[in-house]
Design brief:
4 strands; alpha+beta; four-stranded antiparallel sheet; Alpha-Beta Plaits
Length: 314
């Protein structure tokens, strides 16, 4: 127990002695992981809104009036039943002229000129609103509907726009992963350099410990703890900063209905733990990289010049 306490105390002494270098390493980890976590949060927002926009009506089929121009009186309901039986379709809802007029009044409730311009509500077309199982299948549904030109007046679809949004989401996801890898590697390198500086500052002490029989692990552990603390603190600051920024952004955009900027807390909990573990691992890995060359040289008999000067008689 006393040995463990000594090693922990040595790590804290290292941190205190090299406060400026340690602060630089923590800031480097904070910036690197903060950018990576921020990119991940933006990608999550895109994913949430893409899923929201993919829900609901995907295709609208505008129909010619039943009983006119050779369209049978029961053609509308027959088409709705047929469409609802297709494998690609989740649900098909028929909207008659009365429902279409009510929808028109709701949409233009604040525009009396538009309401007055519609002299005959019967002029509004009936329609079938189609929700798909998979939005990528919209072209197949449109192709089937186009085969009934006598009944189908026109077809409207927002699937192409949603497809573009999905493509953007995939690109952002790829960029977010790439950014996390690059910035994570940068954090490891920066911590390794910090540990090297700490070893250089204590090279005489480390050389003496080697001469009196201290094992490599006994020398290594305080520096590993130092890297671990630096990585954890930097990662914690990154996670906390992105969480605060996301909550403030969501609060500022509460009145905007077009887009949802609220990221659920389970996302931050899940990925926050991942980033904390990554920060700790990056700190330990950086420490190992920073120590490996020095200890290898020390085992080979190559002691720092400062250590030789300390041991040689004056």
């Amino acid at each position: 127990m006393s040995k463990i306490a000594f090693l922990v105390r040595e790590a804290l002494v290292n941190l205190r002695r090299n406060i400026l270098v340690v602060t630089g390493a923590i800031l480097a980890v904070f910036i690197s992981l903060g950018l990576a976590f921020g990119a991940l949060a933006v990608n999550e927002l895109v994913r949430i809104n893409t899923l929201a926009w993919q829900e609901g009506v995907h295709v609208i089929v505008w129909l010619n009036d039943a009983g006119r121009d050779g369209v049978p009186a029961d053609a509308h309901q027959a088409l709705r039943s047929e469409v609802e039986g297709w494998d690609e379709v989740e649900r098909a809802v028929y909207v008659d002229k009365t429902a279409a007029y009510e929808e028109f009044q709701e949409i233009f409730a604040n525009d009396p000129d538009m309401l007055e311009a519609l002299e005959n509500p019967a002029a509004l077309p009936t329609s079938i609103r189609i929700e798909l199982n998979d939005i990528d299948l919209y072209q197949s549904v449109e192709l089937r509907l186009q085969q009934q030109p006598q009944l189908v007046r026109s077809i409207s679809s927002a699937a192409q726009e949603i497809e573009q949004i999905s493509a953007v989401s995939r690109v952002l996801n790829f960029l977010g992963i790439g950014l996390a890898i690059v910035l994570g590697a940068s954090a490891v390198i920066l911590i390794a350099n910090t540990i090297r500086l700490a070893i250089y500052a204590r090279r005489d002490e480390v050389a003496i410990m080697k001469l009196v029989g201290a094992s490599n692990w006994f020398i290594r552990v305080p520096f590993l703890l130092e890297g671990l603390i630096e990585g954890l603190v930097g990662a914690a600051l990154a996670v906390f900063s992105v969480w605060v920024a996301a909550n403030n952004l969501a609060g500022a955009a509460e009145g905007i209905r077009l887009i949802n900027l609220q990221i659920p807390n389970p996302f931050f909990l899940r990925w926050g733990v991942v980033f904390l573990l990554f920060g700790a691992a990056a700190g330990v890995l950086g420490s190992i990289l920073g120590l490996s060359r020095y200890l290898r040289d020390a085992d080979g008999g190559a002691r720092p010049a400062g250590a030789r000067r300390t041991l040689e008689p004056v």
